[in-house]
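Severity: low
Component: inverse-folding endpoint
Summary: output formatting inconsistent between runs
Steps to reproduce: submit the following structure tokens with default settings.
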């Protein structure tokens, strides 16, 4: 069902390359037999598969170098629901309270309609936000992570392809542990998930554990280096060009500590001012962490301040809601309303407000 203008258009884009070719073949055959009729809105041209050639072929390399994918976030607000998986560990996020796509679709309808009405120039794309690699207490010689494949044997068939048919996205979120951002994205690439146009990546520095760290990930709060994020962006940019994907890859980086905030929380992106931008990657700084409305708004504004970080283009904010499985008060007090999220109203009882509307809204 179409939540917003352009929803069907995004459905056509978020189809795996193999599926696009199959659908194209069926349409050609149907047209030849006179089975296709009726008026439809013209669809944008879809790129075909990359021309194969020997390694080092200058023609192939030139085609990859020149490829420019289409932006998603320039035209859309991404609305994600965070958690381990459908029906799993609801204490970790709202996604776990749903039995499946239909259940989620019914629950998020007011959110999608509300976001659309507050940002009429942009369509809304819902997303299933999976904790793909979940940080756990470490065992000897492991990376302190439990991967989603351990409980969901077919991530493509269960999440990615059904989401694509709805025009939705899937975010694969890694908590890093004793791995590295580069190793985590390499794993996601090697599994074939990024071949799908509707798959985005998120990294969570909070749970990055230092070599030799004996405490569980997240104690102390972890950090990543800007150079690591640049390497990940380069990987995503190269992958998008080599595979001639039609849309840019979204990379979300969670943070609630920043040098521009200076509240005693470690800057979760070290040397942040050295971050780079890449043509085929949409880098999102997500204001994560629990807190009161005014505190979160101040942090969001400072962490995504383009005057301080001129490479900032896309912003995100994560809102934590109470749930009946969580008994320790790990939620915002109180959670922001949509008018507050989009800067139309200030924090309750105060004057501070969101200065620039987010491009990504995450609820947990």
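Observed output (run 2 of 3):
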């Amino acid at each position: 069902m179409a939540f917003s203008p352009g929803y069907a258009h995004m459905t056509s884009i978020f189809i795996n390359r193999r599926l696009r070719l199959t659908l194209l073949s069926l349409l050609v055959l149907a047209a030849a037999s006179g089975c296709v009729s009726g008026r439809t809105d013209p669809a944008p041209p879809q790129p075909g598969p990359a021309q194969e050639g020997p390694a080092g072929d200058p023609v192939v390399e030139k085609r990859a170098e020149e490829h420019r994918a289409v932006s998603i976030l320039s035209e859309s607000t991404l609305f994600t629901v965070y958690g381990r998986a459908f029906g799993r560990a609801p204490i970790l996020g709202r996604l776990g309270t749903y039995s499946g796509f239909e259940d989620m679709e019914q629950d998020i309808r007011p959110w999608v309609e509300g976001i659309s009405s507050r940002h009429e120039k942009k369509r809304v794309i819902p997303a299933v936000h999976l904790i793909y690699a979940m940080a756990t207490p470490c065992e000897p010689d492991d990376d302190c992570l439990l991967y989603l494949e351990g409980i969901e044997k077919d991530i493509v068939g269960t999440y990615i392809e059904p989401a694509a048919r709805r025009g939705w996205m899937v975010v694969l979120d890694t908590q890093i542990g004793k791995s590295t951002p580069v190793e985590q994205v390499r794993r996601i690439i090697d599994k074939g998930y990024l071949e799908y146009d509707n798959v985005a990546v998120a990294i969570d520095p909070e749970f990055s554990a230092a070599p030799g760290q004996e405490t569980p990930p997240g104690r102390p709060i972890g950090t990543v280096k800007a150079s690591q994020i640049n390497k990940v962006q380069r990987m995503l940019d190269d992958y998008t060009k080599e595979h001639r994907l039609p849309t840019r890859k979204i990379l979300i980086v969670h943070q609630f500590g920043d040098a521009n905030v200076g509240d005693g929380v470690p800057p979760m992106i070290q040397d942040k001012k050295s971050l780079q931008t890449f043509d085929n990657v949409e880098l999102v700084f997500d204001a994560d962490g629990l807190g009161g409305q005014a505190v979160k708004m101040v942090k969001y504004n400072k962490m995504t301040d383009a005057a301080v970080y001129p490479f900032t283009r896309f912003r995100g904010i994560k809102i934590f809601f109470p749930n009946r499985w969580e008994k320790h008060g790990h939620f915002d007090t109180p959670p922001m309303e949509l008018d507050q999220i989009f800067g139309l109203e200030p924090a309750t009882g105060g004057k501070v407000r969101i200065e620039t509307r987010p491009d990504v809204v995450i609820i947990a």
